[in-house]
Design a protein that fits this description.
heterodimer; A: alpha+beta; Dipeptide-binding Protein, domain 1; Dipeptide-binding Protein, domain 3; seven-stranded mixed sheet; 22 strands; globular; B: mainly alpha
Chain lengths: ~525, ~325
């Protein structure tokens, strides 16, 4: 086995996430794996658009990443945490105005046509930059892509763009699609968005709506010896209880993204032939955040925000809501991003007396009913844990005399209320850290975002000093200086609390023993599964 | 026969305003909810910027006024075009045609089973009201009726699929099996045993109770007393006089239950991962897919109207008085 000899029960206890990011990070070469077989995996949704070049999201990657490949993938032991895929090397210029990619030779598309730099240039300029939900930001200053030969692509930027950002974003924003399939068509409406043609180890075979996706082995995959499996079937199982039962009955062999509810893990981990993995999600760490509406008078007062931070028992949240499968946060950058993370930030220990004291001194005395003021609290509906934390937060706030009224809503109503109408005082959100603070983290606190942008600074927080650092970092080409700016960014955010980071978590994969090479990279669930195999 | 056709034509005409009211009411209900398809979609893909949001709204036609959209929808509906699903990116009619057969199969089997078995057990219970058998059946049905269907579904799965491994856990057929013809039909029926069982058990209890109550009532009626006084055998009285009389309210309830069962199938289809109509409705709600949801509601309304029409025909056959008045009107 590739895993170090840490027993399952140790993993179950508490520090799973930390272990995953440190001790488990070094892993040996892939298991000598038998070839063949059909792997059946639980899927809980069917994305409307399956093209990862247009929609960079985990739901899409889960299926599409086996068919369409990025320039590079995340790796536990690669240089800068990356492993080459369609690009074999990448190098940024000193002035930050260009990045040169050397592309892999001898790669063919699933329809037999050769893969060349023209495909990369087309994907970058016609899809990633103008159409992709995340690429629009990362490639905002991309001006041209030169293709001096078939296996070189030089990205040219109109403004200095940090190579560090481009590098960190490679796994997420650079899924390459074939120029000959999309060129000259209405890209957003092209049927190839759902019947994918890629270069990956698996070919898209079939989608039976409501039932399954079937991917078949690509015999001509560039990485000889891969894939190991003949087929991957993503079986649509909308009910979470069914996923666990289907695993037990061996009707499916793998459930990723915590498709088996946390509450069932203890039981299912004791079932013979079933294993629980908590690693393989380090590069897609989710964060549990209390979002604060800075338009609300009481909440503009730093002391009130500090008191709220003091009222939250992060350890309790990690142990009770996440059953130990999470870690307490110290700030806006998770520990799983060691390149940027600093623990040198202010801390707010759990202390109700101190919190009450701060509020008393700040001029918000308790009324005759023990209440200082009322707030509207909107927990995001996306995960059980965000809703459960909403209930916890309400209780925690009651302990310091703040009466929070919980307003639950479905995804559409929550998005509109929080991000467009700003009809909330506190919200509980699950933003994702995507490898670099510039991709989806700084937007949470940067001022000037228009209303309606999801997972942005919906609280209307304005801090010129912080804005300056964010802007500076977005243009700083020097990696060390840029990293330093993001350390300052963390310190400033934690000191002024535009939002409160409570916990950070990855997901859980549950698999039959027969599935080999599970969770062997930091984005495993959304990587290509070329070396994944089935023991016969 | 002629009477049935007249009845059908009259029903069809009278149901048009009903459908129109349903559509307009649903449209405004959806409008009054906060958030729309673009909000739901952007939330599900983990973000995007303001320009993307605007262009999506335009492409979904959400930037047009509310009345313009309602008019557009009604005029396309008049051409029997159910529109384009936002969440699936496919025509609504196609989606419904794909999912409806699975639900009809599920509901049809469950209805037949619950009606057949429910009335039979109801006869057993009502044959001797107050007896031990009656009490056991009545209490049992009460317990089953009180159980939530998703829980029943999960318990059945754990017992018969996980522990005993007699039956498949979920789905409508073995995935990507390539089976055809008879072996496919066998495979599908294998997959239907648990979901039909779970759905039928709940309604079975209801039919049992109504049948039993009707029979207990009928025992007190004069013609039953007369039959007993005539010295007819007990089994003959039960079947010919009491049960037949108690069947009428059951048939009425069959019509009403068809609507309720459509709702119940949402839960069962989720638990058993059956790609049916109920799950489609759930996905439409989650995605705030107004055209799809309207299509589903219109189709359900048509379905309920047709089932009720059929029930009326059966009723007329069972009780000549009703048929006569409809025919002569």
């Amino acid at each position: 086995m590739t895993e170090p000899s840490i027993s399952r029960r140790t993993l179950m206890k508490g520090t799973a996430l930390l272990l995953a990011s440190t001790a488990l990070a070094r892993h040996a070469s892939a298991q000598a794996a038998p070839a063949g077989g059909r792997l059946i995996v639980a899927a809980d949704s069917e994305p409307k658009n399956l093209n990862p070049a247009i929609v960079a999201s985990n739901g899409v990657f889960f299926i599409a990443s086996k068919v369409i490949e990025p320039l590079a993938e995340a790796a536990f032991d690669g240089k800068d945490g990356l492993a080459p895929r369609l690009a074999t090397s990448w190098k940024g210029s000193a002035d930050g105005l260009s990045v040169t990619f050397k592309l892999r030779d001898g790669v063919t598309w699933h329809d037999g046509k050769p893969f060349t730099s023209a495909d990369v240039a087309f994907s970058a300029l016609n899809i990633w930059k103008p159409l992709q939900n995340l690429g629009r930001l990362v490639f905002a200053n991309l001006e041209a892509v030169d293709t001096p030969d078939d296996y070189t692509a030089i990205f040219r930027f109109s403004k200095p763009t940090p190579f560090q950002l481009i590098r960190n974003a490679l796994p997420v924003v650079t899924s390459v699609v074939a120029k000959h399939i999309f060129d000259g068509s209405d890209i957003a409406a092209n049927p190839a968005n759902n019947t994918l043609v890629g270069t990956g180890p698996f070919k898209f075979a079939e989608h039976k709506p409501g039932e399954y996706y079937r991917l078949a082995r690509n015999e001509d995959y560039w990485d000889k010896g891969q894939p190991k499996l003949d087929e991957i079937v993503f079986r649509v199982l909308p009910d979470r209880g069914s996923a666990g039962a289907a695993l037990e009955a061996d009707e499916i062999q793998l459930a990723a993204f915590s498709a088996v509810p946390l509450a069932d893990l203890d039981r299912i981990s004791k079932v013979d032939g079933i294993k629980v993995f908590s690693k393989g999600y380090e590069a897609l760490t989710y964060q549990l955040v209390v979002e604060i509406n800075h338009r609300r008078k009481e909440l503009t007062d730093l002391r009130v925000r500090q008191a709220i931070a003091h009222a939250i028992d992060k350890k309790f949240v990690v142990d009770t809501i996440f059953l130990g499968y999470a870690a307490a946060s110290t700030g806006p950058v998770p520990k799983n991003a060691p390149e940027f993370y600093t623990s040198d930030v202010a801390s707010y220990d759990f202390n109700l007396a101190a919190a009450n004291d701060i509020l008393d001194k700040a001029g918000y005395p308790k009324g005759s009913d023990g209440t200082r003021f009322k707030l509207k609290l909107r927990p995001a509906p996306y995960f059980n844990e965000t809703r459960q934390f909403g209930d916890y937060l309400r209780q925690a706030l009651a302990g310091i005399g703040i009466d929070a009224e919980i307003v639950n809503a479905d995804a559409a109503a929550h998005q509109k209320a929080v991000y467009t109408d700003h009809d909330f005082d506190l919200a509980v959100g699950p933003p994702v850290f995507r490898g670099d603070p510039a991709i989806s983290t700084t937007i949470l606190v940067q001022s000037g975002t228009p209303a309606g942008v999801p997972f942005s600074n919906q609280g209307g927080y304005v801090n010129p000093e912080l804005d300056k650092i964010i802007l500076q970092a977005s243009e700083t080409v020097d990696t060390a200086a840029r990293t330093d700016l993001y350390r300052k960014f963390q310190q400033l955010v934690v000191a002024d609390l535009p939002l409160i980071n409570v916990a950070e978590w990855g997901f859980i994969t549950v698999a039959r023993d027969t599935v080999l090479n599970v969770s062997n990279n930091p984005r495993w669930a959304v990587s290509n599964w070329g070396d994944t195999a089935l023991q016969s | 026969m002629k009477r049935a056709i007249t009845l059908l034509r009259r029903r069809a005409i009278s149901s048009i305003p009903v459908l129109l009211i349903v559509v307009i009411f649903t449209f405004f209900m959806l409008e009054s909810a906060s958030g729309d398809a673009v909000d739901a979609y952007l939330g599900s893909i983990g973000g995007g910027d303001a320009v993307l949001r605007q262009s999506l709204r335009e492409s979904y036609g959400l930037d047009r006024s509310m009345l313009a959209r309602l008019w557009l929808y009604l005029s396309s509906l008049a051409r029997l075009d159910l529109g384009w699903s936002v969440a699936f990116g496919r025509p609504v009619g196609e989606l419904i045609a794909e999912r409806l057969p699975n639900t009809l199969l599920l509901m049809g089997s469950a209805t037949a089973l619950s009606f057949g078995l429910g009335s039979a057990l109801g006869i057993l219970a009502g044959a001797r009201p107050g007896s031990l058998r009656d009490r056991l059946l009545s209490i049992g049905s009460l317990i089953v009726y009180a159980v939530p269907s998703f829980w029943l579904g999960l318990v059945l799965t754990i017992v018969f699929s996980v522990k005993l491994r007699w039956l498949p856990i979920a789905g409508i057929e073995t995935i990507a099996s390539g089976k055809t013809g008879f072996s496919r039909a066998l495979d599908i029926s294998d997959h239907l045993v648990l979901p039909v069982g779970a759905l039928a058990l709940i309604y079975l209890a209801l039919f049992l109770r109504v049948m039993r109550a009707g029979m207990a009532e009928a025992w007190k009626l004069d013609f039953v007393l007369f039959a007993r006084a005539k010295g007819l055998s007990r089994s003959r009285i039960v079947l010919r006089h009491v049960a037949r009389n108690a069947l009428l309210p059951l048939v009425t309830m069959l019509g009403l239950q068809s609507a309720a069962m459509l709702g119940g199938s949402v839960v069962i289809e989720s638990v058993f991962a059956i790609p049916g109509f109920g799950r489609l409705a759930q996905e439409a709600v989650n995605g705030r897919d107004a055209p799809l949801l309207m299509g589903i509601i219109v189709t359900s309304a048509v379905l309920v109207i047709s089932v009720n029409f059929l029930v009326d025909l059966v009723y007329a056959a069972l009780d000549p008085r009703i048929g006569a008045s409809e025919g002569s009107a």
